[in-house]
Amino acid sequence: MRKILFLFVFGIMMFVSCNNLVYETNELCCLQEITRYRCGFEEVIFLLPEFSTNLDYEFIKWNIHIEGIGYSSDFDYENNCFSLSVVKNEPLCVVAVPIFYEKSDINKKEHIFYKAAGAIYPYKSYSAGNSVFVEVEWESGFVADLMKSLYMENKDKNIITTSEFISSFNWKKLQIEIENKIDESIENLSSNVRSEKFYNPWLLDKEYLLKNISDGSFSVSYITLKNVLAVNIDDLKIINSNVESSFIPENEIINKFRKIVVKKKESCYFIAEDCVQLELNAITEKNVSHGYVSLPIYEK
Predict the structure, then answer these.
(1) Domain boundary residue, one of 130, 148, 168
(2) Residue 84 to residue 134: CA distance in whole angstroms
């Protein structure tokens, strides 16, 4: 997390340097109804995460998707922050996916390897000086993607109905619970708890969660990982033993503990050295089949 003191000193400078994204005229028109009884607009600076990779691919830009009340946008972006006028205190999500191209590819075809980073406003916003900030984080990507899906599923509904529906769910609690599960799994692994597995929220059943959020029957128990196994990389006896997860926070755990978490009896994919994709299918932690296919995992 960036220090508040740093942001206080450099907040104004960052506000000037970050590109400002504004609502189009037709988007403002559809917001008039909601802003008549809400709190108006607020300028927010979104800070994109830093990261490194061992891939022989070059990071070139972010693909950013934003969903909020009366606002939907998908665009590519190269800088590390941007500012946006948002409806104050109304839920809005930012989903940011890093885009790469192979250094040796003269055509520079775009590829996606990693899961999205994300942010949900206003639940993780904070002030420094005269500016409001929200950090876009890898740990928040899954929850932001959930909110994005709900907004897109309800696009045809009345804007007030959608606002009340999205706002009725406790997104802050969901994000805190997921972050706590990630932190707890890391602490237990560090304490050599044998049964512990790193918590990767992208292994949850997204469609099941969306249905229960929509039905108003959500429970914290639904974000417990089920049917997952922790596979020891060294037991696989694979040639390409330097393995990366598409969920970036997991990679530090893989390097330290040499374990990767997979869904039982489902094909799971990881990035291996020499630019190949490692496919694992596990019945038990010791009964694991594997194979290789060419990268990338996704093509944009």
Answers:
(1) 168
(2) 11
